[in-house]
Amino acid sequence: MKILVSNDDGVFALGIRTLANKLAKAGHQVTVVCPDRERSATGHGLTLHEPLRVEQAEGVFDPEVTAWACSGTPSDCVKLALDALLLEKPDFLVSGINHGANLGTDVLYSGTVSAAMEGVLEGVSAIAISLLSGYPNFQPAANFAVHLITALETQPLSLPVLLNVNIPPVEVAKIQPPVITHQGVRRYFDQFEKRVDPRGRIYYWLAGEIMEEEDAEIPMPVEQAFSSPSHTVLSRALIEVGQRFMTDVQAIKKNHITITPLQGNLTAYTALPSIDAWKQQSLKEVPGTAKY
Q1: Bridge pairing between strands 256-262 and 176-180
Q2: What pTM was computed for the model?
């Protein structure tokens, strides 16, 4: 199969090199288009006010891999690959292997996940794969990526979603089977360290550590949801589905490989009936608009 590989850690990162070479050895036609330097936590940013530059990256990957290094963001790389560099649309896009977790609300900042999402928006089946910090061996993650792509080739998904995969930072014998999860929450305690550069100008360096991990669902007990007249059959069903599956942050603590389906639509469907009821009470009349 034709596979496009990208990341946010840059062209020289061990994760992407391990992934691309493993996919090529498995018999796939692999093209890498990724940032020419570290571009982590750039989210889904695009470069609009300066040109994108791209050069072939020779000697970085195995000879079977065609590789390009781009001056832009991860999303730039995927757009450029699909619309300018590749002669044919790829069968799959794999983003990673990221150096560190992309769990819970990390996905809102992640360039790795955003690169995969850009593929989904362009109609390409996509996977984002990350290895949690603390274990330097990327081979288990690369092996699972090959296994997952084989499964998707045999039985493809019919939904426009990306699969966000996280690999626990333990040796192979301790890795638990993959589980389907839903998105959890990771909150960080942000710290801005104030520094002074050699010219006497003040600057700040952002650092943070995980403060809290929990469920990402809108907090409403099932009993309340089922008794509330403002909640529809759909919202109740969504709450029930959420309770059937662990969050990604819960499952990774048990050393499971986590697979979380993500989509570009961020609508909080379970909140729609409640917000609509609130609107009826609070926004009955808005100055300058027709009455409704």
Answers
A1: parallel
A2: 0.88
